Amino acid sequence: MLNWKELYSECVNCNKCDLSKNRTNMVFGEGNLKSPIMFIGEAPGADEDRTGRPFVGRAGKLLTKALTALELTREKDYYVCNICKCRPANNRNPFEEEAKACIPYLRNQFALVKPKIIVCLGAVSLRYIMGNNYRITRDRGTWIERKGCYMTATFHPAAILRDENKKRVFWEDLKSIKNKYDELKKEEE
Ligand code: URA
């Protein structure tokens, strides 16, 4: 396992897949390095590629705003990153070989942060984290426990921008995440 500095250096110099050829910036991840919650998205979009920061575009702002309303902040409560650290052209889904090349970096981040809660944002993240049998519409909002880590999924915030009807359940899912976080905190006290 690499430490943060080593891992960042590997990622910023990575050319394991073709996404590296067109990146402006590698988007590593951001937040409290000892966060109880880790949000995992799909891959950077244009704003993220430009700035090198995850979830800073329209979808990211929606997510941040909703989490702030629940008093969850990047600085204190969560770490946010993606399956792929470089932007796929035209925001297409990452190809399997791109995701598979990048996931070892994500595993290393997980091992360093040691979150108690993992939240998959959207279908792509859910599939690569939990497995091929999971479906976002059917399985979002449910919890499973693996090796002491609680895992769940909700819609990708970009899906909420496209379809207002998903907003209510998205909000319910985020509240459930906050409840789990509060529960785990109480258990520690
Ligand atoms: N969508 C994602 O999945 N990740 C980001 O960082 C931004 C948009």
From TrEMBL:
Reaction(s) the record says it catalyses: Hydrolyzes single-stranded DNA or mismatched double-stranded DNA and polynucleotides, releasing free uracil
EC number(s) stated in the UniProt entry for this protein: 3.2.2.27
Keyword presence, Ribonucleoprotein: no
Protein keywords: 4Fe-4S, DNA damage, DNA repair, Hydrolase, Iron, Iron-sulfur, Metal-binding
One Pfam assignment: UDG
InterPro entries, alphabetized: UDG_Type-4/5 (IPR051536), Ura-DNA_glyco_family4 (IPR005273), Uracil-DNA_glycosylase-like (IPR005122), Uracil-DNA_glycosylase-like_sf (IPR036895)
Classification via CDD domains: UDG-F4_TTUDGA_SPO1dp_like
Domain Uracil-DNA glycosylase-like: 28-175
Family: Belongs to the uracil-DNA glycosylase (UDG) superfamily. Type 4 (UDGa) family.
UniProt xrefs under NCBIfam families: UDG_fam4
Protein's name according to its UniProt entry: Type-4 uracil-DNA glycosylase
Origin species: Clostridium oceanicum
